[in-house]
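Troubleshooting: if your tokenizer reports a length mismatch, compare your output against this known-good record of 427 residues.
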Amino acid sequence: MFDLGIINGRVYFGKEYRVTNVYVKAGKIAEISKELFECERVLDATKKIVVPGFIDSHVHFALKVGEFESADDFESGSKTAAYGGITTFLDFTDPIFHHDEFRDALEKRKKEAENACIDYSFHATVGDFKGDPDVLKILCKAEGINSIKVFTTYSESNRRCSYEMIEKLFDEEMTLMAHCEEEDLLKKRWESPATYEKARPVMAERSAAMHMADIAERRKSRLYIVHISSGSTLDMIKLKHPAQIGKSIFLESCPHYFYLSDVKLSNIDGNLYLLTPPLRGGKELMRLRSSIGLIDTISTDHCPFMSEEKMKYDMAYQVPMGIGGVEHSFPLMFNLFGDAIIPKFTSKPAEIFGLKNKGEIKVGKDADLVIFDSSLSNTIKESHSKADYTVYEGLKIRGKISATISRGHIVMENDQFFGGQGQFIRR
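Known-good structure output:
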């Protein structure tokens, strides 16, 4: 007898759907067959699609930013993510400045994440790093971490990593993640949300992204550029490094850059839309949409704050940066691009970050599954985040998550949350 059977669904197998049944035993996909077998529990997925559980490679739960802390901790963040079909998320250690700090930084975050209801891992994060990069890489690999994040900006908070050190951090067996904004092209202080986009222009993102891509190609190493906000950045990378895209240079973007423009920043509640990099103009948004084929992964950079905190200061540079997104990410992007978006939530992030048991519906893989009803129309009204607003409120989208299954356990079904027990995943 199987623990769980998902029957009569249109099951996604990469390039095709097949109407079949998926059977689960001991947290793994145990059988895929049109035959009906006895199960402890059955979910009927008739007229719905069954896809691999989604992977969000970029979230910030329980993040402290000066006097503020992001609204979602690991418990609430993983819950709202599960409502969005996410079964695995990757967060970050706090920035470290010497390799001796790594193990403590990782253990701190692992302890904070113990009450997550879905699986998780972490990227190592460095600031103005003064330690031994080779020792850090050895320590990361020993702890099951195969990615390191660097910043090319934020020297005011000691997070900017020099390009000289970045060169040394590149490694053929690991993925270097980069927040790309050329600091010399940024204006550090801006008074109103309306001037924010000009303070952190596309040129700054494009310049740093090209600098990082040049280093990656020279070092023959893997680069992952986070939260690309502009189509022109993609176009430039395609022009200069076409052979590396999707193979050794990986490109991430987020739903807000496909839906929201800098017009939002001119509204009276513009503070609510402040994040880094900023929302761009309409032309850049449309260029980004037209270049979706170049994007490897869709993540959210989920980091919401309470509206009172976002509106606390008149000087916009004092506002905590970030918005929420995990719950609505997939339906938003499916609404725009249909089936073409699925690998960017599943197989591609699993491949890039070494999540060997995730990202596919295949016998032996973790039973991380999503049942999605693409026939439903839905207007976004709220989320299950602790944050008291969502920037997507009022948007009409196609499709709704019917159930989220993590290692064979039904975490959410028909808007009812059943909880779960996430595990740290070594990569």
